[in-house]
Structure to design on (225 residues):
């Protein structure tokens, strides 16, 4: 079964607002990654958080990881129209040897 | 310079035909992957190669055959195409053998079966 599930499936906000996306997973992991996919393009790696880390920042991105709840969140602050894309979490399970992707959150940022 | 490039970008063909998709990466990575993304954007791994050796082979019909002539190239050949093969196919690469490394994706090949 699918490892990662994302919530919400779709999110529409105004430019300047913050966007929060959540990811839940089922098994123990080595790390969790977030990717962005613009329409008609490939996935772009945003940030990787290891299982022993609780929070990580990269520019306007903030990722948290709660291994006890098996969940992660991606916060994009001060969103821009260019942030409009699908965002995917991907887990690297301790057992399995492959990245498993969630079904993504479709973010729409209106100018 | 494009890091991971796939050709063709679009592929429209008839059911029953055989087709190939090519992938090349210029990042010097050791590991390459093929993924299939369906119409609901669900992304699933198909194959993974490390230094030309197959390391992941998911439950993919044997009509799909990957070939890695060298570690910078991973091609995908599909025989007897079926309607259900319509999807976007992504090639990706990463450093080292650990799948936990960040992956770099091509822009995809959109395959449509008529």
């Amino acid at each position: 079964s699918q490892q990662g599930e994302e919530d919400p499936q779709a999110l529409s906000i105004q430019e300047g607002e913050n966007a929060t996306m959540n990811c839940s997973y089922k098994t123990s992991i080595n790390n969790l990654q977030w990717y962005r996919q613009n329409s008609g393009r490939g996935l772009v790696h945003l940030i990787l958080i290891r299982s022993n880390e609780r929070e990580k920042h990269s520019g306007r991105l903030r990722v948290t990881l709660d291994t006890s709840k098996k969940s992660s969140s991606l916060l994009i602050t001060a969103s821009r129209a260019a942030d409009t894309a699908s965002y995917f979490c991907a887990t690297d399970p301790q057992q399995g040897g492959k990245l498993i992707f969630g079904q993504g959150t479709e973010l729409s940022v209106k100018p | 310079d494009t890091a991971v490039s796939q050709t063709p970008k679009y592929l429209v063909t008839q059911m029953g035909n055989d087709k190939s998709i090519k992938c090349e990466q210029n990042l010097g990575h050791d590991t390459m992957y093929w993924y299939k993304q369906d119409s609901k954007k669900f992304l699933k791994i198909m194959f993974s190669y490390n230094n030309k050796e197959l390391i992941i082979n998911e439950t993919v019909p044997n009509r799909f055959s990957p070939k890695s002539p060298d570690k910078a190239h991973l091609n995908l050949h599909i025989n007897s195409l079926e309607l259900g093969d319509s999807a976007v196919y992504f090639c990706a690469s990463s450093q080292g053998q650990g799948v936990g490394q960040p992956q770099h994706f091509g822009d995809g090949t959109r395959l449509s079966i008529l």
Q: What stands out?
A: The first strand of chain B starts at residue 4 and ends at 7.
